[in-house]
Amino acid sequence: MKGLILSGGKGTRLYPLTYTRAKQLIPVANKPVLFRVIEAIRDAGVTEIGIVVGHNGAEIEEAAGDGSRWGVKLTYIPQESPDGLAHAVKISQDFLKDDPFVMFLGDNVIQGGISTLIRDFANHAWNSQIVLKEVADPRAFGVAELAPDGTIKTLIEKPEHPPSNLALVGIYMFDSNIFKAVHAIRPSKRGELEITDAIRWLAENGYVVQPHVHKGWWIDTGKPIDMLEANASVLDELVPEIAASAEISGSDIDKRVTVQDGARIINSVIHGPTIIGEGCVIENSYIGPYTSIYHHTNVRNCEIQRSIVLEHSDISDLPSRLYGSLIGRKVSLTRRDLKPQALTMNLGDHSSVQLV
After folding, report:
1. Range of lowest pLDDT (10-19, 190-199, 205-214, 343-352)
2. Which of 229, 243, 276, 244 is nearest to 257 (CA)?
3. Which one is the CATH code of 2-222: 1.10.10.10, 3.90.550.10, 3.20.20.70, 3.40.109.10?
4. Which residues contact 253 (CB under 8 A, 6 or more apart)?
5. Quick one: pLDDT at residue 347?
6. Do 110 and 192 meet the contact criterion of CB atoms below 8 Å apart?
7. pTM for the complete prediction?
């Protein structure tokens, strides 16, 4: 069996962070989401993985390399334009050949991994298996309606009036019959080859499409609030560990905190679940629950809670607690003591600032 990760989106809902970084490389609990997807596929026993990439392909390839660090082989498949998930399958046919495969969206985080799903698919004569999840507002997703016997009744992409609350969560298993479907369907009104249309074609032409309703948490990390939710969910499951090379002095750190190599915690209070990255310095500060501080970041005289701070940033002397925030790479966030008191900002497109 092979794996296929779709990693070509622009991540417009995460601007401005994704102006300068592929959204799949933004870390959740100090590990890029794409790396978590690779590990989930590897842990299910799949070691040949194709990654469909778009305009950010060079950045993703530089970050993930050949896959050897995970014990897998990565192949990069360029998608010249974002023409839909079914189009991504179509252009991957030379890589996938006639092998069954699992397809995973590269910006999704799911509880429990996919080993059981892969095993079930391998042990049944199904042509496809799709993962569904009950969501509050299914209009932004592909939506499935199930028949009374649990089989697929219909599939619709981003319906205005959803027939159910069961969304396709971006994890699919297929055998080679999917190529018949992706070559048979036509672009939707959005101009894309929709994977929902391809799966519906399979079901309508006598192929077995098996739904699986996921009971654990699942998060599409497409928006800032989703990134924070994913971060919190992963931190809840993280096994805390204090690296031997970490230096801690005069600080109160509870048992739910992870401190990575070379970090220094000085005269600070750290409440978990929280992770402090490699080479960070936290001094005279409070880091509250559900916070991830990525590597080589300095935090002094601050309070931060339920936030993600990326690498090589400096945050100091803030007048109030930083809460529910995404802070990018190499950010300098400080308080100015000069008179007169004023706000001085350099903000990029699509920035969001809330003042209290």
Report:
1. 10-19
2. 276
3. 3.90.550.10
4. 242, 259, 265, 269, 270
5. 61
6. no
7. 0.89
